[in-house]
């Protein structure tokens, strides 16, 4: 039996603070004659009894107007509004933030780019049609007269029961290809499968993907999806050729292998999602599509340059120089793509070597600052790799021999 009412689950699964806010919103909606709903991820996760990550409230009408009334009547503050979309972000006690959206209709005049809002304040039945999957299109009424009532215009409840991801119309992936990545995210996170028709439409899109699209959305979804740190995500991304949205790679890299090496270096890695993505980005042009931040771009370009150059040396010093100054993410991408064991040699052994002598030491030994400092440090490092120097005293003795030569 599918639940018809979510009141019990709201009571059971939301924090006391979140419940208090929802009941306050409910009361104001009744007094001020608005109809408000939970829609999207929060409903899906309540039904699945999963952790609730964030709460979105949809207002039939103008969400900004509703939030202004809420602000007048309760202890909360509007912190952000977007007038064209008629959305508002509100901060409540305990720093809880809730996004309020007006019901809206969207169209995609430029396929793959951000939609144009053609109407706000429309019927809820129209609002849910702009969404990605049926399981994300279930609404729950919050007004006191129908609190908890489930409103399912798209068959989301049935799909939730059958663990199925189904898009809402044939052009869905053409309108917004980031939904393909969202599908990958939800299939992995929830253990759901694409329904047959959805799978077919995904395949059709990926045969001839349009790259004139909103890269902002693609990047954001890839970041969320690869941050799951799941081997399955990469395997499915390659198996289903989802990477074709953003790359022409022929790399076929095993998700478990990526996962294992990430685990080994977990404490050092800041951007693990970039490692999963980086092994699929084998071309500078495709990297340029994304609006990567400077440090992200650096990681990916360093990895790509290293793959292009290769590291064929057996000499410890040369290997050290090849990887010196590169981020752990770049080195791991290089290793995963090239399978070059020098990367492991560097990470496990060579990078632990270092020169103890400092620039100040050289000054006090009478060397004038300049380019020769680098040469001296390199010479010391070579001696360390050769096993001729083990400590700072031996470095000093060695430097003296340089001075005298
Ligand atoms: P999560 O648990 O990852 O936050 P979510 O389903 O809540 O998942 P959000 O990105 O927070 O996802 O978006 C909230 C809702 O907005 C979704 O449930 C879906 O209904 C709708 N939505 C989000 N992105 C899209 C999209 N690209 N196309 C259509 N609808 C979308
Ligand atoms: Mg969400």
What is the topological layout?
Blueprint: H1 7-13, H2 16-32, E1 35-39, H3 41-47, E2 56-60, H4 63-73, E3 76-82, E4 87-92, E5 97-102, E6 104-107, E7 116-120, H5 124-127, E8 139-141, E9 150-151, H6 156-161, E10 164-165, H7 172-175, H8 178-190, E11 193-194, H9 196-207, H10 215-226, H11 231-239, H12 255-264, H13 272-278, H14 284-289, H15 294-309, H16 316-323, H17 328-338, H18 342-348, H19 359-364, H20 372-385, H21 392-404
Parallel strand pairs: 2-5, 10-11
Antiparallel strand pairs: 1-2, 1-8, 3-4, 4-5, 6-7, 8-9
Bound molecules: adenosine-5'-triphosphate and magnesium ion.
Magnesium ion (MG) binds next to loops.
Characteristics:
Beta Polymerase, domain 2; binds adenosine-5'-triphosphate; 405 residues; binds magnesium ion; Hydrophobic Seed Protein; alpha+beta; seven-stranded mixed β-sheet; 12% strand
Question: Any overview of this molecule?
Answer:
With 405 residues, the protein is of the alpha+beta class. The protein has helices spanning 7-13, 16-32, 41-47, 63-73, 124-127, 156-161, 172-175, 178-190, 196-207, 215-226, 231-239, 255-264, 272-278, 284-289, 294-309, 316-323, 328-338, 342-348, 359-364, 372-385, 392-404; strands spanning 35-39, 56-60, 76-82, 87-92, 97-102, 104-107, 116-120, 139-141, 150-151, 164-165, 193-194. The strands form three sheets. Strands 3-4-5-2-1-8-9 form a seven-stranded mixed sheet. The chain has a two-stranded antiparallel ribbon with strand order 6-7. Strand 6 and strand 7 (116-120) form a beta hairpin. Helix 11 (231-239) packs antiparallel against helix 12. The radius of gyration is 28 Å and the shape is elongated. The protein starts with 6 loop residues before the first helix and ends with a helix. The mean pLDDT is 95. Magnesium ion is lined by residues 41, 53-54. Magnesium ion (MG) binds next to loops.
């Amino acid at each position: 039996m599918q639940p018809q009412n979510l009141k019990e689950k709201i009571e059971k699964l939301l924090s006391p603070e979140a419940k208090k806010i929802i009941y306050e919103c409910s009361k104001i909606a009744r007094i001020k004659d608005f109809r408000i709903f939970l829609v999207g991820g929060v409903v899906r996760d309540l039904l699945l009894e999963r952790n609730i990550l964030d709460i979105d409230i949809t207002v039939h009408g103008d969400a900004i107007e509703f939030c202004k009334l809420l602000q007048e009547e309760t202890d909360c503050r509007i912190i952000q509004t977007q007038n064209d979309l008629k959305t508002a972000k509100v901060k409540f006690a305990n720093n809880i933030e809730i996004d309020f959206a007006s019901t809206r209709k969207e169209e995609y005049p430029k396929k793959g780019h951000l939609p144009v809002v053609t109407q706000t304040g429309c019927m809820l039945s129209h609002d849910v049609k702009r969404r990605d999957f049926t399981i994300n299109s279930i609404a729950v009424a919050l007004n006191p007269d129908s609190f908890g009532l489930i409103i399912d215009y798209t068959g989301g409840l049935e799909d939730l029961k059958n663990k199925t991801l189904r898009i809402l119309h044939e052009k869905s992936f053409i309108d917004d290809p980031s939904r393909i990545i969202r599908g990958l995210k939800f299939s992995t996170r929830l253990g759901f499968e694409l329904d047959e028709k959805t799978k077919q439409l995904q395949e059709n899109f990926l045969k001839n993907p349009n790259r004139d699209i909103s890269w902002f959305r693609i990047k954001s979804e890839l970041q969320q999806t690869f941050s799951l740190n799941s081997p399955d995500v990469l395997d499915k991304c390659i198996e289903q050729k989802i990477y074709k949205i953003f790359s022409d790679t022929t790399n076929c890299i095993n998700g478990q292998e990526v996962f294992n090496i990430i685990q080994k270096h977990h404490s050092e890695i800041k951007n693990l999602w970039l490692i999963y993505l980086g092994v699929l980005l084998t071309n500078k042009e495709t990297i340029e599509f994304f609006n990567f931040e400077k440090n992200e771009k650096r990681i990916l370009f360093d990895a790509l340059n290293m793959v292009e150059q290769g590291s064929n040396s057996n000499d410890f010093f040369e290997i050290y120089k090849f990887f010196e100054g590169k981020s752990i993410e770049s080195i791991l991408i290089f290793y995963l793509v090239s399978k070059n064991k020098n990367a492991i040699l560097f990470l496990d052994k060579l990078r632990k070597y270092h020169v103890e002598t400092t620039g100040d030491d050289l000054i006090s030994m009478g060397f004038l600052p300049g380019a020769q400092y680098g040469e001296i440090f390199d010479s010391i490092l070579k001696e360390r790799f050769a096993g001729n120097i083990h400590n700072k005293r031996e470095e000093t003795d060695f430097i003296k021999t340089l001075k005298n030569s």
